[in-house]
From TrEMBL:
Region (Disordered): 1-28
Organism this protein belongs to: Brassica cretica (Mustard)
Recorded superkingdom: Eukaryota
Protein name, entry field: Uncharacterized protein
Length: 55
């Protein structure tokens, strides 16, 4: 199993930002893209950890 980096641990422990998952009204800026990627990554990490715990 691969070890989590410090950045991955921070993303995993941070709750999902509901605003980051909302569809933006304006253009998709770099900061919005980064925040969306971090949120999705955090949700995936959380999902994988729950799957490992349950399975």
């Amino acid at each position: 199993m691969e070890q989590l980096s410090d950045e991955d641990k921070e993303i995993k422990d941070k709750p999902a930002d509901e605003d980051a998952l909302a569809i933006p009204v304006g253009p998709m800026t770099r900061s919005r893209t980064k925040r969306l990627n971090e949120t999705i990554g955090g949700l995936l990490m959380k999902s994988w950890k729950q799957e490992e715990f349950l399975g």
